[in-house]
């Protein structure tokens, strides 16, 4: 018996059904890798971030996520090099899809219709996606912006529904905008944390605080308030 077409499963119906002690025998999802490229690149390496956003409320199979990952990875490797990007799959296939198997091959003297609305047995997994959910994100250099948009355009053919590529205003995968990141870095208020970056909170014991971060908390708040880039609250 062949695989059922995805039009049978693309719409979200009912509550999520996940793998548990009550739902056993679920096949492993096809996608096993969610971060590709130069995963350990410092936060300063890739300032530009682009998101691939879903415009429909659908279910995406783990096979489709794996096909999209392979497509995007192949194009990024060809255009940006293996160390020229860091891409992350933002959706995980936790929802279990089911199928009610019936005989339809040689030996069955007539096709079975079976009971309507039958429950079925686990067939695979899928990710439940809402409108505006981010499917994939990539951080790259500014000169590779066109390559990233083209990679996501090709990736869209692997997904059901409609998608859109959006250029983010943050610095890489951090929560700071480019202006905020540049200001914090120039004023020694930025704490590098691998692929992420944090704002120095000017708290804690002096022995564990770097010398450049040793300023009074009211001075830090005054600096941030002067720029108008941050919403400063007294904490």
What would your notes on this structure say?
- By secondary structure, this protein is α+β, with helices and mostly antiparallel strands.
- It is built from four helices and ten strands; from the N terminus they run E-E-E-H-E-E-E-E-H-E-H-E-E-H.
- A hairpin with a 2-residue loop joins strand 9 and strand 10.
- Helix 1 (62-79) packs antiparallel against helix 2 (145-155).
- It starts with 34 loop residues before the first strand and ends in an 8-residue tail after the last helix.
- The relative contact order is 0.19.
Task: From the structure above, extract its key features.
21% helix; 4 helices; 235 residues; elongated; three-stranded antiparallel beta sheet; alpha+beta; five-stranded antiparallel beta sheet
Side by side, the strands of the main sheet go 1-4-7-2-8
Termini, distance in Å?
Answer: 62 Å
Helix content: 10-25%
Round the mean pLDDT to the nearest integer and report it.
91
Number of E strands? 10
Low-confidence stretches: none
The sequence of SSEs as H and E is: EEEHEEEEHEHEEH
Task: Give the overall shape.
Answer: elongated
Individual helix count: 4
| Estimated structural class | alpha+beta
**Rg, Å, rounded:** 24 Å
What summary fits the major beta sheet?
Answer: 5 strands, antiparallel
Strand content: 15-25%
């Amino acid at each position: 018996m062949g695989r059922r077409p995805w039009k049978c499963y693309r719409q979200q119906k009912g509550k999520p059904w996940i793998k548990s002690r009550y739902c056993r025998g679920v096949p492993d999802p096809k996608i096993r890798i969610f971060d590709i490229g130069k995963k350990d690149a410092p936060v300063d390496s890739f300032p530009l971030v682009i998101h691939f956003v879903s415009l429909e409320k659908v279910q995406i199979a783990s096979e489709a996520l794996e096909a999209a990952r392979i497509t995007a990875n192949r194009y990024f490797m060809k255009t940006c090099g293996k160390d020229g990007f860091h891409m992350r799959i933002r959706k995980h296939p936790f929802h279990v899809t089911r199928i009610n198997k019936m005989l339809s091959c040689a030996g069955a003297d007539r096709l079975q219709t079976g009971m309507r609305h039958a429950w079925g047995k686990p067939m695979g997994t899928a990710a439940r996606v809402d409108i505006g959910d981010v499917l994939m994100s990539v951080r790259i250099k500014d000169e590779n912006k066109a390559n990233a948009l083209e990679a996501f355009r090709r990736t869209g053919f692997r997904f059901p529904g409609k998608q859109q590529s959006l250029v983010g205003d943050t610095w890489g995968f951090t929560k700071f905008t480019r202006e905020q990141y540049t200001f914090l870095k120039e004023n020694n208020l930025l704490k590098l944390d691998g692929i992420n970056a944090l704002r120095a909170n000017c708290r804690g014991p002096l022995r564990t605080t770097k010398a450049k971060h040793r300023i009074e908390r009211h001075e830090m708040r005054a600096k941030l308030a002067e720029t108008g880039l941050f919403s400063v609250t007294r904490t």
